Structures are given as structure tokens and as C-alpha cells.
Amino acid sequence: MLSFADSFSFAGKFKLFDRNTDTDSERKMKLSREKHKFYKEQIESYLKSERPYLNTDFRMNDMVEATGIPRHHLSMTINSVYHTNFNNLINRHRIEYILSRFDDPVWDHLTLEGVAGVAGFNSRTTFLNAFKKVTGMTPSKFRKKQEEREENAEVSMPRVLLSMPNPV
Fold first, then answer.
1. What is the enclosing helix (H) or strand (E) of 77?
2. Is the residue at 3 inside a domain?
3. Which of 56, 61, 94, 136 could, after both became Cys, cross-link 122 (CB 3.0–4.6 A)?
4. Does the structure show a pLDDT above 70 at 29?
5. pTM of the shown model
6. How many structural domains is the chain composed of?
7. Which residue range(s) make up the domain with 132?
8. Does 73 share its domain with 100?
9. For residues 38 and 40, what is the distance between their CA atoms, to the nearest angstrom?
10. How many Å apart are CA 107 and CA 2, to the nearest integer?
11. 8 A C-beta contact, residue 63 and residue 69
């Protein structure tokens, strides 16, 4: 470890606070690939089977308690394996849940805020930002494009049927 005097120099070097990024504590905190793989399987199994992200009050500590993964290991695994943080991971699952149900006629009567609430979002802004991050467009634009695709499919369907050979 560097002393203050070693880290701070004016003698022509103009060096301020040299940080050694690979400290003893960081080396100890690195997880093996096997551990990351094991934790990833636990995380995915938990998210798939329990769908805890649908709860607006779902927090990292809830996942820690449910999976038994230590908080710092959970955070490190999410950062390393999914290349994101806990909140973005959960929000992505919420958006995937919404996208998998957008065609459901039961959802047609829901406002965007209603859809967000059902998926576990408690903030309209967080929902809109997460949706745009995952899909590249706002929910309204996404819905409109989806409706256009459905209309185009209905219009083009007869052409497809007409071009099919008649069964004899």
C-alpha cells in the first residue's frame, strides 16, 4: 500500500494519489467462474419460478434472503455476468414480462400506468425509461407498431391464401 508521501509528488511528476486498482481486498472479492455460474443459475431459477419482480417493493435484500446468495456476491455476479446492476436487471425482466403479454386482450383496457403497475413498476418515469432502454422506443410507439404489424398481417393474409395451390 502506498503512503501519502509516495502517492503525492510535485518533483516534476505532478502525480496525485496513485491508485493501485488491484488491492488485496479486491483480489479476495473476485469470484471464480464456477461460483458465478452457480449464482447465475440460482438467480435465473428464482426469477423464473417466483417472478418476484412483479412486486413493486422487490429489493436486492429480498433476493438475498430468498436465494441465500451473500449481497456482495449477488451484486458482483449481476455486474459481471449480466453486465448491469440489480435495478436494471429487474426492470429488464419487468419489460420482458410486459412484452410477452402485450397481445393479451385483457391488457387492452389497461393504461400504460396500469401495465407498469401490473409488472411491478411504481414509477411511470422508471417504466418509460426502462421500456425505451430495452425496446428502443416508447410503449406507445411500440403498441402502435404492433397494431400496424397486425393490420398488415390481416391485409396480406388473403394474398398468401390465394397464392397457395388448391388441394385436390
1. helix 71-81
2. no
3. 56
4. no
5. 0.74
6. 2
7. 94-157
8. no
9. 5
10. 60
11. yes
